[in-house]
Write the structure tokens for this entry.
Amino acid sequence: MMNREKEQLFDQWPEAYDQWFTTPIGSLVKKYEAELILDLLNPEKGEVILDAGCGTGIFTLDILSLGPKVIGLDISHPMLTQARKKLKGSRFGIVLADMLHLPFSESPFDKVVSITALEFIRDAEAAVKELFRVTRKGGTIVVATLNSLSPWAAKRIAEAKERHSIFEKAIFRSPDDLRSLAPVNGAVKTAIHFQKEDDPEKAVEIERQGERRGLNTGAFVAARWEKK
């Protein structure tokens, strides 16, 4: 997709995106995705972290709560406007830019995270290369995207064809696909083992079982790498 296409794709989505996470099942999705991200990223006070593709800042808030300074980057101005309102008063700055062309010098960040943005970038390897470039030596890179091995992927693709949703443009990748994008080995985990239609109380137990079994079919797949 060209830049303007990507901008338009997200420009109408800020309100709907945030509202989804206030639903009973959406709030569970948010809880388990945030827990996985924080476990892999381990944000610490005093660090400077880039949140590439930060959207409305829905996950940025959790990162900020642990004390680092965060720069939120996104290609959509409406998304960043929503994030700035939500995170007003926090150690948070915004940058309007494309993940494939990060407007930063070499290695200014202690850690870099990108959450559910990679699925809208065809050249994922180039995007991950940019994330590595702006991370200091010994720093951490965490990337999370939508898992092609999950039943959620098939349903989202089918729904997109019927309703012409944002997922028409999404590229779903497997844990192995994600793992292969970086020049170093990394840890890969998945979350969200329940389905959108599941009862929230039952979903909690389903998630526990999926985590205990180490399933690679969760809807949300995240990788953690260390820059050598």
User: Anything to note?
Assistant: Strands lie at 48-52, 69-74, 92-96, 109-115, 135-146, 187-191, 220-226. The chain has one domain: 3-226. The longest strand covers residues 135-146.
